[in-house]
């Protein structure tokens, strides 16, 4: 079961957390549309409301009134391929001998089955097949014998994979980011408290200030009076494995992730794309909305230098940037349509070309990715039907050649067009006049990271975690679940 989700947690000074959580979930809606939920704690009792559907549909006024308490967490979940299953909706919550736990998870464990088997053998009963419940049970077990910080450290020593978590333990709110920082999580300050969120856009929505990212391997505990937070660096790791696709595709452009404004990163990736594979055409246009920032950076760079890298003459304006495709905003991303047939129809519903921008011109169309190739094929055909003389396709990221095991419901290897085709073969299949992707080095350069500090698994086939049957790009090993990987008391 894979998922791509948004998580949030707040601790306020005396004010109910439910409404700020609800607004924050709205800001994170792009990270998950299958289910939405909030768990709060009022100092005596835990309250939970989790429903299938969008945030606006999942909560009524009365539901928020019943979620009392100044501490709480929230979650939005992405649809998985295939069936929609309410047992995996989050936050996951339990009550046990040492209090109550609520847990929201963004990411995916690669050793959840091993831990589940071990816990099941010890008598734990599971109600879902999701890995969030595995983390919750493991943490609950540790909390029977250890304080909060040691219990979290103990669980971090057993779970392997990507995770950004927001957790309530009674009325204490905490956030945890996996030792390689694969999925984002940041801390914000509000007028009367603190917030943890997948993206800083959620903090902005509440008029808060971004404080910083949660560090890889760090536990952040929000103080119960909303006055601050405590930090515990529980695991040190030599390298990080930030998901570069957060910057390219997933995150909102107005979010700041790992110190980088996503919009600016996308523009700079577009500039690199021009430097690496620019082609002189009459017009450059984005695939709305995903390609817009890339196309704007690409066109800017094209205004400064020629495709050969020479400075432009004063009377040479470079390539014209134009909006040649209009998007029907009431059709969802093709990426999340469950069947091929639905995806094919959705492309035609989604985009409408502006003929006067395209007819009789050579066109460069820019997007952030090609997954199955369906959209690109139809797009090129659409532009040629509109009278484009040539259609060049440029992609602001490397080709996706392998699936994601870290919580992104992307596609299987068989479905990915680049998994077994060269760039030339893909160009022929989508019937473009030329096709180019950005290099992985350019991505690392723009994000200001060493390649080894990024997860590039889906574009190289080498992952930063030990995944059965796959290659890794670093020295990693799974924790021995039966043993104690991290002593709980050091
Ligand atoms: S495999 Fe790709 S999508 Fe998945 S975490 Fe790594 S970079 Fe992100």
TrEMBL record:
Protein's recorded name: Amidophosphoribosyltransferase
Query: Which stretches does the entry tag as region Disordered?
Result: 468-490
The enzyme's E.C. designation = 2.4.2.14
Q: Per its database record, what is this protein's job? A: Catalyzes the formation of phosphoribosylamine from phosphoribosylpyrophosphate (PRPP) and glutamine.
* One function term, GO molecular function aspect: amidophosphoribosyltransferase activity
Gene3D superfamilies xrefs: 3.40.50.2020, Glutamine Phosphoribosylpyrophosphate, subunit 1, domain 1
**Catalytic residue positions:** 5 (nucleophile)
- UniProt-listed PANTHER family: AMIDOPHOSPHORIBOSYLTRANSFERASE
Q: Where are the transmembrane segments?
A: none
State where Mg(2+) binds: 290, 367-368
Q: Where is the Glutamine amidotransferase type-2 domain?
A: 5-225
The record's catalysed reaction(s) read: 5-phospho-beta-D-ribosylamine + L-glutamate + diphosphate = 5-phospho-alpha-D-ribose 1-diphosphate + L-glutamine + H2O
Q: Which GO terms describe its biological process?
A: 'de novo' IMP biosynthetic process; purine nucleobase biosynthetic process
> Its annotated pathway?
Purine metabolism; IMP biosynthesis via de novo pathway; N(1)-(5-phospho-D-ribosyl)glycinamide from 5-phospho-alpha-D-ribose 1-diphosphate: step 1/2
- The record lists the organism as Natrinema thermotolerans
């Amino acid at each position: 079961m894979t998922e791509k989700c948004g998580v949030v947690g707040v601790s306020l000074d005396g004010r109910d957390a439910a409404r700020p959580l609800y607004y924050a979930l709205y800001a994170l809606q792009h990270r998950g549309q299958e289910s939405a939920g909030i768990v709060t704690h009022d100092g005596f009792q835990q309250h939970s409301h989790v429903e299938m559907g969008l945030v606006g549909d999942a909560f009524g006024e009365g539901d928020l009134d019943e979620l009392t308490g100044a501490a709480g967490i929230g979650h939005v979940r992405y649809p998985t391929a295939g069936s929609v299953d309410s047992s995996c909706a989050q936050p996951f919550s339990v009550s046990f001998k040492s209090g109550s736990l609520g847990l929201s998870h963004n990411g995916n464990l690669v050793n959840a089955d091993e831990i589940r088997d071990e816990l099941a053998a010890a008598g734990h009963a599971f109600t879902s097949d999701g890995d969030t419940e595995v983390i919750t049970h493991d943490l609950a077990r540790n909390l029977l014998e250890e304080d909060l910080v040691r219990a979290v450290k103990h669980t971090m020593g057993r779970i392997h994979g990507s995770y950004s978590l927001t957790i309530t333990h009674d009325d204490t709110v905490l956030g945890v980011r996996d030792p390689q920082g694969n999925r984002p999580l940041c801390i914000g300050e509000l007028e009367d408290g603190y917030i943890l969120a997948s993206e800083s856009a959620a903090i902005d929505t509440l008029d808060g200030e971004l404080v910083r990212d949660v560090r890889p391997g760090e536990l952040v505990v929000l103080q119960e009076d909303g006055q601050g937070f405590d930090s515990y660096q529980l695991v040190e790791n030599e390298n990080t494995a930030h998901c570069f696709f957060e910057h390219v595709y997933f995150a909102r452009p107005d979010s700041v992730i790992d110190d980088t404004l996503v919009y600016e990163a996308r523009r700079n990736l577009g500039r690199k794309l021009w430097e690496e594979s620019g082609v002189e055409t009459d017009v450059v246009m984005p695939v709305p909305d995903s390609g817009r920032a890339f196309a704007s950076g690409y066109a800017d760079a094209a205004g400064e230098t020629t495709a050969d890298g020479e400075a432009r003459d004063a009377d040479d304006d470079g390539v014209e940037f134009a909006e040649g495709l209009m998007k029907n905003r009431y059709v969802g991303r093709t990426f999340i349509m469950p069947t091929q047939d639905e995806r094919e129809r959705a492309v035609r519903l989604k985009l409408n070309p502006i003929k006067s921008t395209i007819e009789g011109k050579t066109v460069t169309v820019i997007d952030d990715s090609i997954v199955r190739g369906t959209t690109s094929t139809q797009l090129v055909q659409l532009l040629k039907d509109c009278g484009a003389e040539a259609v060049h396709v440029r992609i602001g990221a490397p080709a996706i050649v392998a699936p994601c095991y870290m919580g992104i419901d992307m596609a299987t290897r068989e479905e990915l067009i680049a998994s077994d085709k060269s760039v030339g073969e893909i160009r022929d299949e989508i019937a473009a006049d030329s096709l180019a992707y950005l290099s992985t080095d350019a991505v690392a350069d723009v994000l200001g990271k060493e390649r080894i500090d990024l997860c590039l698994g889906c574009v190289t086939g080498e992952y930063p975690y030990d995944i059965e049957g796959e290659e890794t790009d670093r020295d990693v090993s799974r924790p021995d679940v039966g043993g104690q990987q991290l002593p709980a008391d050091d």
